[in-house]
Write a structure and sequence with these properties.
Blueprint (H helix, E strand, L loop, with lengths): L6 H23 L3 H17 L3 H13 L3 H13 L14 H8 L2 H21 L8 E5 L9 H5 L10 H9 L9 H10 L3 E9 L3 H10 L7 E5 L9 H14 L3 E7 L13 E4 L9
Parallel strand pairs: 1-2, 1-4, 2-3, 4-5
Helix pairs in contact: 1-2, 6-9
The structure holds 2-acetamido-2-deoxy-beta-D-glucopyranose.
Pfam families: Acid_phosphat_B
Organism: Apostasia shenzhenica
Protein name: Acid phosphatase 1
């Protein structure tokens, strides 16, 4: 005899259990219909694992009907933030208008605000200043302090992969506004006595433009602005570059209290800060 029962044998067993188990439960205990329903649900669920056939298809179709395009795009956006969706070259075509709406919405403002509130809460509850200047906070620049939204507005909100040349030309104009909400957090962190390091994957040749743009947008008083050597364009991933720069800081004796960035690659890797704060950004993904 086979050690594994055949499919038809399984179906027969399931049919028998559907027929007899509920009857047995009623007879034995007179349970109320709610537990009878949950038992039936369990049986039906078990049946699905061996192929639910038409009934399962019908239920799944009904469930699908509840999913609107807005649901679909909101799930996509949330899963980008959760780092479940990775490595996307461009925003899915069907979601570009959703992303456009989100980036201009009060929801985006509120999401950024919540991240900054949590960062401030963390410092209030857990930070103590040593007074030796070695307590640091690391900020990424693009879409963390300075918004690239005006650039992406004219490039389908991430609906096509950004042209690096055009993006850098835009950055050189020093027109990026501050990310609303981050300005307050930045100055709050400064007032608490932390030393601020800015760590960006912008290239070194944009140093003057980056300094200039940050000042115009209302930022000042950072201790370092670390940019990528112009020769370092290829090879190392952003995550590797950023974590190697943080390693240097730790080796110099700095204590990394917190980091804020709009890309997972700015936040992952070692060494880590005590806390990291991800700023929402559904427009692009950098490895
Ligand atoms: C980027 O834009 C520049 C200027 O319009 C163009 O010359 C170049 O071919 C573009 N690069 C890509 C990869 O599309």
């Amino acid at each position: 005899m086979d050690s594994k029962p055949s499919t038809s044998r399984l179906l027969l067993l399931l049919t028998l259990s559907i027929t007899f188990i509920p009857a047995a439960v009623f007879a034995a205990s007179g349970e109320e219909s709610s537990s009878w329903r949950s038992l039936l649900r369990q049986v039906v669920r078990n049946r699905w694992t061996s192929g639910g056939g038409d009934h399962q298809d019908a239920v799944e179709k009904a469930m699908m009907k509840e999913i609107t395009l807005k649901n679909y795009c909101e799930s996509w956006r949330l899963n980008v933030e959760l780092h479940n969706v990775r490595g996307f070259g461009a925003v899915p075509a069907e979601c570009t208008s959703f992303v456009a709406k989100y980036m201009s919405s009060s929801q985006y403002k509120s999401d950024v605000q919540r991240a900054t509130d949590e960062a401030a809460l963390f410092l209030t509850s857990s930070f103590s200043l040593a007074g030796d200047g070695r307590d640091i906070w690391v900020f990424d620049v693009d879409d963390t302090l300075l918004s690239t939204l005006p650039f992406y507005k004219s490039h389908q909100f991430g609906g096509s992969a950004a042209n690096r040349t055009l993006l850098e030309e835009w950055m050189a104009k020093e027109k990026a506004p501050a990310v609303e909400g981050m300005l307050d957090l930045y100055h709050d962190i400064r007032r608490r006595g932390l030393t601020i390091f800015l760590l960006s994957s912008r290239p070194e040749h944009l140093r003057d433009a980056t300094d200039g743009n940050l000042i115009k947008a209302g930022f000042h008083g950072w201790a370092r602005l670390i940019l990528r050597c112009d020769e370092d364009g290829s090879g190392r991933s952003v995550q590797k570059y950023m974590s190697e720069e943080r390693k240097k800081m730790v080796n110099e004796g700095y204590r990394l209290w917190g980091m804020a960035g709009a890309q997972w690659s700015s936040l992952l890797g070692h060494p880590k800060a005590k806390r990291t704060f991800k700023v929402p950004n559904p427009m692009y993904y950098i490895e």
